[in-house]
Amino acid sequence: MRDKTQTNSADPGDRLIRAGAVLFFIGAVATLVTVAPFLLGTTPFPTYMFGLSMLMGVGFLVAGAGVFRSIAAGRRQARGASR
After folding, report:
1. Model confidence at 2, in pLDDT bands (50, 70, 90)?
2. Which of 28, 50, 52, 74 is most buried, most CB within 10 Å of its CB?
3. For the whole model, what pTM was predicted?
4. How far apart are alpha carbons 12 and 16 in whole angstroms?
């Protein structure tokens, strides 16, 4: 089976996992930027920055959905191969 798999082929959940990782990274940076003024004693950022920090959780959920989609595709493929 391994010789039939193309190196550039993408599994069903790969794009969701990548998008989730990007969203998580953006949210993590926004969280650090939002918390920094509290630690440094300067003026806090506007409220929308706190909303931008929520992208970290959204990215985690999107990546998790991609993992579950990959698991489901693997099970379908294994079930089809066993018949």
Report:
1. low
2. 52
3. 0.77
4. 8
Amino acid at 44: P
CB 64 within 8 A of CB 6: no
For 60, what's the count of Cα atoms within 13 Å in the CB-facing half-sphere? 7
Q: Distance between CA atoms of 8 and 54, rounded to whole angstroms?
A: 32
Inter-CA distances, 13 with 2, 16, 51, 53, Å:
19, 5, 26, 24
Q: What is the pLDDT of residues 62-80, one digit of tens each?
A: 999 999 999 998 888 888 8
**φ, ψ for residue 11, nearest 5 deg:** -70, 165
Query: Burial of 65 by CB count in 10 Å (0-12 exposed, 13-18 middle, 19+ buried)?
Result: middle
User: Residue 21 corresponds to which tokens in the numbers above?
Assistant: 């990782």
Which pair of structure tokens corresponds to residue 57? 């959780």
